[in-house]
């Protein structure tokens, strides 16, 4: 360690690593309560079971009034020919509006199923992010890599660093070449920078 500043930086980095390790211990020690996962899973599955029954189109049996009773007058209307299979004067006894066919592809229900079930599966995977599944963090690789990097840093600390030559030397960096297409989108005037037109003497440049 060359001076006190390097000692301060080293202690600061070690303290930061200790704090992050403490957070990992907290995440691994304090798990998500099991009742939360059970409630979310039960709510999602119950919701879609309810949608399975509640969002189906109805084809109620057709009845006719004979005296003081309802007598079945025909089977369910056929979906492909809704109006042709209805019996004149017949009605349903459940109060369902059968003048309009409501069968359709449940697009929004399908989207809800994809989103909610996808979020549920992601949440189940994130319950133990440091496990041994394919979707979990590769903890062994992270530990081995950090250990190797720390050994490399300690072995190469204090060694002299060879300076690299400036590839541009004492000249300005070359300007980028434009293609025929990109040249059409160039501005008519380049923006004026504060350092434009600044002339330096030989003593200032050296």
Put the structure in a nutshell:
With 206 residues, the protein is mainly alpha-helical. Helices cover 45% and strands 5% of the residues. It starts with a helix and ends with a helix.
Describe the structure.
With 206 residues, the protein is mostly helical. Helix content is 45%, strand content 5%. The chain is built from six helices and two strands; from the N terminus they run ααββαααα. The chain has helices spanning 4-29, 34-54, 107-125, 139-156, 180-183, 202-205, and strands spanning 62-66, 69-74. The chain has a two-stranded antiparallel sheet. A hairpin with a 2-residue loop joins strand 1 and strand 2. Helix 2 (34-54) packs antiparallel against helix 3 (107-125). The longest helix has 26 residues, at 4-29. The radius of gyration is 37 Å and the shape is elongated.
Arithmetic mean of pLDDT: 76
Percent strand equals 5-15%
Q: List the strand order in the largest sheet.
A: 1-2
Radius of gyration: 37 Å
Class by alpha and beta content: mainly alpha
Topology diagram in text:
Blueprint: H1 4-29, H2 34-54, E1 62-66, E2 69-74, H3 107-125, H4 139-156, H5 180-183, H6 202-205
Antiparallel strand pairs: 1-2
Helix pairs in contact: 2-3
Task: Tag the structure with descriptive keywords.
45% helix, 206 residues, two-stranded antiparallel sheet, 6 helices, elongated
